[in-house]
Amino acid sequence: MHLPYFLKAPAVAIIGDTCYTTLIEDFNYTHVPCIKYAISKGLGFGIVAGGAIVKVPQIIKIVQARSAKGISFYAYMLETLACVISLAYNIRRNNPVSTYGETFFVTLQNLAILGLMLHYNGKNTTAFMVLSSFLFLGNVLGRTAEHFLADGTIVQSALVSLDLLKFLQTATIPINLISKVPQIVENYKNGSTGQLSAFTIFNYFAGSLARVYTTLTEVDDIIILAGFLLSTLFNCILALQMALYWNSTPAPSKVKSEKGDGSSSETKKRVKKLD
């Protein structure tokens, strides 16, 4: 089957000439490598599309409540740091956009959430400093420049070497895992997930599972694969907490009741003395 150009061009761009010919023109659906590659590409772009909106419900929930209660600020700081490093690393490695594109959107949404968390705590100056710092870091890590030598050779230079960036990417594995811990602990202590969005949590878990497959299929990088495998485990814990604490509310503070009991007992003692 021959598709018109306006359909063929994007299909070839996504799955390549060989797999386009095999799957679309020759209808050869027994070619396992192309089938796996097409599935990976479909999942990859699906994750990227999902990443563009994955935290929008979380942002809406915070704005509506005018509060980020139950959401760990430190968890979002660490996750955003890992996102900025991973985004720069993937761009510098020229990895397919389908294997990391959602990181760009998640980074922007995380910055919005961090800004809102600080804003609703009356820390607008701190919000500006935090957001500016992350944008500056991303620019430093990802920026490259090309120079032409006298013989016409193109030399690429960067403020941060690729070796150092590779080390930082390795460091994102523990950073990503540690970023989940404060939120897991916060949920456990409260017996509730507070203002956390179920849509965001469950989509994160599904997305990390799919990313394991796309990384195995398209990217030969053990560092990225290890990161997604461990991230899937911790996202699974958060998803289980979301299911466990569904419709739960934080336990009310006992401080006031204890104070009330104390004052009432003192009143009773005074009454007895007067008697």
From TrEMBL:
Keyword Transmembrane: yes
Membrane-spanning residues: 73-91, 103-120, 126-142, 222-246
SMART domains: CTNS (SM00679)
Coiled coil feature spans: none
Compartment list: Membrane
Keywords: Membrane, Repeat, Transmembrane, Transmembrane helix, Transport
Superkingdom of this protein's organism: Eukaryota
InterPro entries tied to this protein: MannP-dilichol_defect-1, PQ-loop_rpt
GO annotations of cellular component type: membrane
Gene3D superfamilies: 1.20.1280.290
Family, similarity comment: Belongs to the MPDU1 (TC 2.A.43.3) family.
Annotated protein name in UniProt: Mannose-P-dolichol utilization defect 1 protein homolog
Organism listed in the record: Linnemannia elongata AG-77
